[in-house]
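User: Please predict the structure of the protein below. I'd like the answer in structure-token form so I can feed it into my own downstream comparison script.

Assistant: Understood. Taking the following sequence of 444 residues as input:
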Amino acid sequence: MATIGRPAARTATRTRITALDTHDIRFPTSRRLHGSDASHPDPDYSAAYVIVRTDAGDDLEGHGFCFTIGRGNEVEVAAIDALRPLLVGAELPALPAGLADVYRGLVDDGQLRWLGPEKGVTHMAVAAVMNALWDLTAKRAGKPLWKLLSDMAPEELVALTDFRYLSDALTPDDALRILRRAAPGKAGREARLRAEGYPAYLTSCGWLGYDDDRLARTSRAAVADGFTQIKLKVGASPADDIRRCRIAREAIGPDIRLALDANQRWEVGEAVERTRALARFDPYWIEEPTSPDEIIGLAAIRRAVAPVKVAAGEHTANRVIFKQLLQAGALDVLQLDACRVGGVNENLAILLLAAEFGVPVWPHAGGVGLCELVRHLAMFDYVAVSGTWRDRAVEYADHLHEHFLDPAIVTGGRYRVPTAPGFSSALRPEALQAYAYPDGEAWV
């Protein structure tokens, strides 16, 4: 029998995981250059997708995934398959608190952890599984994930968080202080969130493969749609970057924020030089100006390009590297990802780290399904952790949402609050069939 973490207490009726099904789902976004940037010119937005089933007899399933961009999605699916022996036959925790042991059991597997540890393909596989288990847990509670987490007591949230390797920056007592400080205003913030929605900024007007006319047209449309910030991909030739920044700034006017994203394209010195050359267009931040692992370099870039901010995090492998980025003073903006690290549990640690260091969280989205997931994390952060949405927003890209049962909805530049139970991670059955690789209708 499979076991995960500490053995669960015996109960009269035990629910066990009976199946973990995986799917290689890919969308041919490269055909129209959606998602194109300086490092990824032809991405096919993809999901290594998992469905968890149990013997509970309630017809509820847990759906999760991690995001990739085409070739290599089959590698991610294989990594999720490698976790199956740890899960099928294991008892599913009756309470959310039990998911802490599940998480630890998956990341601490004595053989698979060698491939990380806690980074890369295997860690993203843990994210897909953990996100599916949280989806199922929230469905059983009858709540959307953001609400399930927000309703937990500080002690419960701390018990879900893995503080290993963080004690020099964040302890359980620190986390309790942060959560207890936010507790008195939770009800009011939740009411405001439901009434107003959460701020969003738009990425999909600025893909690197779009021509100048399309860039100008979509940038103007973003302002008309109520967005107060857009993002533009840079990292092509210096002349192209200057021309495209000029077009975008003229299209949106002086009062709308313009963020720039180099997608890891530059060396440290080059990043400083290129960012300074674009400073005339008043960029709010430069995102991923160099390697995501370049902690010291990112700190140096931040010092050199101020007041332009430095944003990063979508490719940061785990909470330990986030801790070091914060300790080094390398970030003005922290961009956590729902699937890059080990899922909900690890993102709890990252949100708490960001609150401890006073760095705003602007979650990475776009892709396929990331907008659906990270809105829950940002809304939970606003209600129960940071208690603010000042100078922060969630990225939005306006494609592929129609394939989800509970799609992200943005109106007037703000994410509407999800109300359906779960993590909003379930694809429509017809999408699972049509975009299955390589035999789905979209690929045949």
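That's the full token string. The two ends are 40 Å apart (CA to CA).
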